Every structure is written in C-alpha cells, then in structure tokens.
Amino acid sequence: MLLDVSRLLWRAWRGQAMTGIDRACLAYVEHYQDRARAVVQRGGFTYVLGMEHSRRLFALLLDRPVGFRGRVVRLLVGSVFAHVAGLASLPGASYINVGHTGLDRPGHARWVRRTGVRAIYYVHDLIPISHPRFARAGEPERHARRMTTVLKCATGVIANSRDTVDALERFAGLHDLPMPPSHCAPLGLSKVQCAGDATRPYAKPYFIIVGTIEGRKNHLLLLNVWRDLVQRHGQNAPTLVIIGQRGWAAENVTHLLDNDAALRAHIVELGRCDDAQLGQYMMHAQALLFPSFVEGQGLPLIEALDAGTPVIASDLAVFRETAGNIPEYLDPHDKQIWADAVMEYSAADSVRRQAQIVRLEGFHAPDWSGHFAAVESWLRRYFS
C-alpha cells in the first residue's frame, strides 16, 4: 500500500494548526504506519519512499518532534536511492490519497498512469464547486480540477457521507465523466478529542461554535443573535465561545468581533484550542451551535453528541444522515428562532434541552476502528 502524506508533511513543515482533514490524514498514518510506503509530492515530482524511510517519516508526522524540519530533510535526502530502486514494484499497488493533495495538477494524473498504481481517493466535500460564494478566489476552479482527476484516475472513491457521494455523482453527470466504485465511510472520532476537564470554564450559561471563521459557517447569524440578546437581557445574556481560526469570506464577522465592544463583553474568541480545552468547553456547554449553510460531514456535531452535549444545527441533509432526529434543526436564515432556542437552552429547567439529552443517550459516534474495518472490507471485495 502507498499512502500519500504530502498534505501532512508540508503543513507540519509550515507549523500550521491541525484541521479536520489533517486529523483524517493522521489517522490513516497511524493505522497503516507498519504496512505502507509513504508518498511525497513536491515541486511537480512524486517520491515513493522505501519501507524503512516510510516508517521513520510516519513517526515524525505522528510526533512532530523538536527539530522536525532538519530531521525531515535528512530523511528525504537519504531516501532518494530507495525511491529509484522501488519504482518497479508500483504497478498494481494501492495508492491512497486522503488529503486531496496534488489532484489539481496535471502531473498527478500522469504519475498515476505511468506507475500503474490503483488510486483510491477520499473525498471530503464538493463545497467549493456547489457553493462557490463561500470559497477563496480560484478555489472553485481548483476543486473542479481535483474532482475531475478523481473521476478520471480513481480505481475507487471513499467519501465521508452519502451526501458527498451524491454531490460527486452529480458533478460526474454534469461533466460526462464516469463515476468509479464508491463507498461511504464517515471519519472516525478519537475519544481523546472529547476528554474534557471536569472544571466548568464559566459559571453562567454559555454556548460554543467550533470551526474556522468563514462565510459558510454562518457566524454572522450568531453575532446578530447575540447583539439582540445583549440588548434585551444585558448581563443576563449567555456567553458565546467561538473556537476556530479566522478564515476567509467573513470580513463582516471579524469587523464585529474587533469593533463592537458591547458584543465582545459576551463573546470569547479562541483562535487556537487544544484537544483538552475543546473537550472542556464542549462538555459543559448548554449546546453546540452549528448554523452552517453547507457541510461535508460536520465533525463538531459528532463530537458534541458523543460528549453528551446537545446540538442546535441547520437543517442539512448531511446532519440528519449523521445524527438522525437527535439535534434541534433550525432554519439558518431565521435569527429569531435561533435567539429563542438559545434563551430556552440557557434556562436551568429547559424542557427542550432535557428532551434532547434523553434523545442523545442512544447515540454512537463513528470510530476509527469501524472506519478502517469498513474501508478494508470494501477494498478486498472490489479490488482484490
């Protein structure tokens, strides 16, 4: 098996914080570290490391030790001859790309054809294509190239939800491209992500929203809700904790966060939050608020329910696929119904909140062992 670690490697090289996709890539490294060879893309070239160099690189990615860059350089330089010697063994090998890395570049498709590998791609979403207004400049075109590469090169496709598979099938139909065999395998949840401190961070009721501050996450709705709550309830208004880095297409949100002093008195912004902090905030929150306009899977929803925390979310098909009727689903455009729900969930004797707590008692979050069991069963069935 060949495992592409390019995204993890170069983001770690730049010291970038982990995203949901990075966590998925890391889970694949952890699972396959003893039986896969690492693939690294750089500068238009694709390198396949030998088994020993791969194990060492996997260990560096899992630990990110002090001196990471220097160790990576020495390892990659030393692996060049192993790469050349190992090229003959590639035809028919399963190549897995979890991070969408390099798929927008023509050299990737040429490498797949030249080496004869069986390419398996994990598709997280088609949001830049289906909702281009929420994407960075140029990203819809880049993502369209990625998905075109997937459809032309893939032996098989794994996706995080049925909703994502459906979106890929629609894209294939629009562009008259073949749809490869596909399998839905939601990302797993690492229990450590929800292992929170028993100490409540605030005495007063608070709510959380988790994710990069970007247009599609709809933080603006919540800021407008909180402005109204502060005007109506003053110091009795609950607190909103925003957990996530500032991103793109959200200038109106960041302007309010930076300039509205009355609002800021009731909002906590955490640009960086480790797993322990996230678990602590998640465990004690009145609810996770998730007013997104579109999502691929929505891992924070799963994390919250697994922690026993209620969720108030947009009425999206992927959320219903993931969590059934457990959360409260609201229109992401209706400020008033969100304000009403927040105040009801703030009450110590909230009937609606208690009803959801009862509903979520039977919730079982997807885990990585189940994920890989399903993936490997599918790979054996279709590609052995």
In terms of topology, how is this protein built?
Blueprint: E1 2-4, H1 6-13, H2 20-32, E2 37-42, E3 45-48, H3 51-63, H4 68-86, E4 94-97, H5 106-115, E5 118-123, H6 127-130, H7 139-153, E6 154-159, H8 162-174, E7 182-184, E8 206-210, H9 219-233, E9 239-243, H10 251-259, H11 261-264, E10 267-270, H12 275-284, E11 288-290, H13 299-306, E12 311-314, H14 317-323, E13 328-330, H15 335-346, H16 351-359, H17 368-383
Parallel strand pairs: 1-2, 1-4, 4-5, 5-6, 6-7, 8-9, 9-10, 11-12, 12-13
Antiparallel strand pairs: 2-3
In short:
The chain is α/β, with parallel strands linked by helices and 384 residues long.
Question: Could you characterize what this model shows?
Answer:
This protein has 384 residues and is α/β, with parallel strands linked by helices. It is built from 17 helices and 13 strands. The chain has helices at 6-13, 20-32, 51-63, 68-86, 106-115, 127-130, 139-153, 162-174, 219-233, 251-259, 261-264, 275-284, 299-306, 317-323, 335-346, 351-359, 368-383, and strands at 2-4, 37-42, 45-48, 94-97, 118-123, 154-159, 182-184, 206-210, 239-243, 267-270, 288-290, 311-314, 328-330. The chain has a seven-stranded mixed beta sheet, with helices on both faces. Strands 8-9-10 form a three-stranded parallel beta sheet, with helices on one face.
Query: Strand content of the residues, in percent?
Result: 5-15%
Structural shape: globular
The largest pleated sheet is described as:
7 strands, mixed
Helix vs. strand class: alpha/beta
Q: In DSSP terms, counting alpha (H) and pi (I) runs of 4 or more, how many helices?
A: 17
| Topology pattern, helix = H, strand = E | EHHEEHHEHEHHEHEEHEHHEHEHEHEHHH
Radius of gyration: 22 Å
Fraction of residues in H or I helices: 40-55%
